[in-house]
Write a structure and sequence with these properties.
Length: 290
C-alpha cells in the first residue's frame, strides 16, 4: 500500500523516527512521497531513496552520532571557545560531517540530487534566516535562481537539520540577486509540516511522543548556556501542551526518551530505534495482499 509520510523534527530523536519508518515498511507500506523537518528530513530522504527496514537499522541506529559533530575553529578553544564560536561562526558546529555521511548513504541508492528522485517524492522544510521565511526544498529553489534537478539532496537535508547555535547556518548563493542567504532548522517554520504534504495517497504523520519524565532543569550561565537552553526548550516544550493532529489519515505516535542527544551511545541509539519500531509495528495493521 502506498502512503505519503510526514516526519516531525526532533534532533537526534530522529533515530526513533527511523525505527518508526522501518516498522511501517515491515508492515507492508511503501512511501510514495515523504516530507520532513530537521531530523525528519534526514529520515525522509532515506526512505524515499529506497532504504528498507534492515538498512535503516544498520545505518541510522548503527551510526556514530558523536562523530557527526564537527566543532567550528573557535569552539575548540578552552573556557570561552563556545561563546566565541557563536559570535564568529554563528554556531558551535559545522554541518559538514552530517552532509558527508548523508551524501554517502544516498549515493548507495544512486541518489545525489533531487533529479535522481521521482519528481515530487521528497520535500524538505527549512528556514530562510535572511528573509525570515519558511521554505520547502526543492520547490523553493527556482526562487533563488537554482535548478532543483542539480541541487544536492543531502545539502537540503542538513539545511533543515541545522539547529540554531548548535550548528552554524548553511549558506546558499542566490543566483538572482547575488546575495548570500543563510538557512537553518526547519522546525522554526514548520516542525510538523503536515500542510506541505500532497494528499494523493493516504497520509501518515509520524509524531514524537516523550517516553518518561520530560522535566529538565537548565543551569544557564553565559551566552552559550542561554543559547543551549533556548534550543533544548524549543524542542521539548512543544510536547508539554496539546498538539494539533489534523490533516493526516493516520497519526503515528513515536515513543522517544527525552534524554537523547549527540552524546548518545550506540547502545542507546539501538534501544531508541527498537523501542520506536516495536511501538509503531503494534500500532499499524498489516497490509493485506490483494
Amino acid at each position: 500500500m502506498e502512503i505519503n509520510g510526514v516526519f516531525e523534527g526532533g534532533g537526534v530523536r530522529g533515530i526513533a523516527l527511523a525505527g518508526a519508518a522501518a516498522a511501517t515498511l515491515d508492515r507492508g507500506y511503501h512511501f510514495h512521497r515523504a516530507v520532513g523537518t530537521s531530523a525528519g528530513a534526514l529520515v525522509a530522504a532515506l526512505v524515499v531513496a529506497g532504504y528498507n527496514a534492515k538498512e535503516l537499522e544498520e545505518e541510522v541506529a548503527g551510526l556514530n552520532w558523536r562523530r557527526l559533530l564537527h566543532p567550528t575553529p573557535m569552539a575548540s578553544l578552552p573556557l570561552l571557545g563556545k561563546h566565541l564560536a557563536l559570535m564568529t561562526h554563528r554556531g558551535i558546529n559545522s554541518t559538514d560531517r552530517i552532509e558527508a555521511v548523508w551524501s554517502q548513504l544516498l549515493l548507495r541508492k544512486g541518489v545525489r540530487t533531487f533529479g535522481d528522485l521521482p519528481e515530487g517524492s521528497l520535500q524538505v522544510v527549512a528556514t530562510d534566516l535572511t528573509h525570515g521565511s519558511g521554505v520547502a526544498f526543492p520547490h523553493c529553489l527556482p526562487g533563488y535562481g537554482l535548478n532543483p534537478d542539480t541541487f544536492l539532496v543531502a545539502r537540503a537535508a542538513v539545511m533543515s537539520a541545522a539547529v540554531p547555535f548548535v550548528f552554524a547556518p548553511v549558506p546558499l548563493r542566490d543566483r538572482l540577486t547575488g546575495e548570500k542567504v543563510l538557512f537553518s532548522d526547519g522546525a522554526m517554520a514548520a516542525n510538523y509540516p503536515i500542510g506541505v504534504v500532497a494528499k494523493d495517497r493516504p497520509v501518515f504523520g509520524f509524531r514524537l511522543s516523550p517516553d518518561g519524565d520530560t522535566h529538565v532543569h537548565h543551569s544557564i550561565r553565559g551566552p552559550y548556556g542561554l543559547a543551549k537552553a533556548v534550543i533544548v526548550s524549543g524542542i521539548r516544550a512543544r510536547y508539554s501542551l496539546p498538539r494539533t493532529i489534523e490533516g493526516a489519515d493516520e497519526v503515528i505516535s513515536v515513543p522517544v526518551r527525552d534524554d537523547l542527544d549527540f552524546d548518545v551511545t550506540p547502545r542507546q541509539a539501538r534501544a531508541a530505534f527498537a523501542r520506536a519500531y516495536s511501538s509503531v509495528f503494534d500500532q499499524l495493521a498489516p497490509v493485506v495482499a490483494a
